[in-house]
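Practice problem: Glutaredoxin
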Amino acid sequence: MDIMQRIQAQVDSAPVVLYMKGTPQFPQCGFSATAAQTLASTGVEFAYVNIFEDQEVMQNLPAFQDWPTFPQIYMNSELVGGGDIIVEMAQMGSLKAAMEEATTKFNDK
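Answer key — structure tokens:
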């Protein structure tokens, strides 16, 4: 399996996937910390990938959906964007609903 197929498999493996620097418990950059905290604040489960644990993913993820920075958040296998976008969604009150919808669709597959 090439790296793009591996990334696609990761994105497809859960309804919400966060690519971040570090882990939700030990984030290694402020943007990743904010993204993980924002997702966690909804109470909806999400998966994460620590890009520091896989250099191939770290190097190739920006080309996967043409998003150059980290963190990256995927729902239903589609790129939502970076941390700023989910913070905005949380402020508007739409993040939890989007994550719940992604989870429902994922479980109905």
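Discussion: The chain is about 50% helix and 15% strand. Students who identified this feature from the tokens alone can consider the problem solved.
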